[in-house]
Amino acid sequence: TEIAVWSGDTVKRDEDGFLYFVGRRDEMIKTSGYRVSPTEIEEVVYATGLVDEVIAVGLPDPVLGQSIALVATPPKGADTPLNDAEILRACQRTLPAFMVPQRIACCPESPMPRNNNGKIDRKRVIALYLNHPAL
């Protein structure tokens, strides 16, 4: 007997029946008619080595539904600012066009603000660094 528990997590099942975490349902970005997992975008950005921390979020957009924005911290010990152009190029090379961020903001605070569970406080980061009320 299998038991399903509603957790708010989105998963995908492969051909062997294994489940893989995609993201939290409440964090999914709805853009251009697609549901996008912030985790997929964040993994691409982390792979560049150009950031220490990053979050991808959806911001209200009258045309797209939501536009994708990143908030990132420069790598630890970096003497140069966040390289927005290189991050964007990496996203364009790797991701479908609808998943490429339209905006990148720098969070000079490292580590990023955390919630009581030790996770990045996404709502606070959005409010502080995207000049947008917490969603």
TrEMBL record:
GO terms for molecular function: ligase activity, forming carbon-sulfur bonds. Pfam families: AMP-binding_C. InterPro entries: AMP-bd_C (IPR025110), AMP-bd_C_sf (IPR045851), ANL_N_sf (IPR042099), ATP-dep_AMP-bd_enzyme (IPR050237). Coiled coil: none annotated. Residues 40-119 form the AMP-binding enzyme C-terminal domain. This is AMP-binding domain protein.
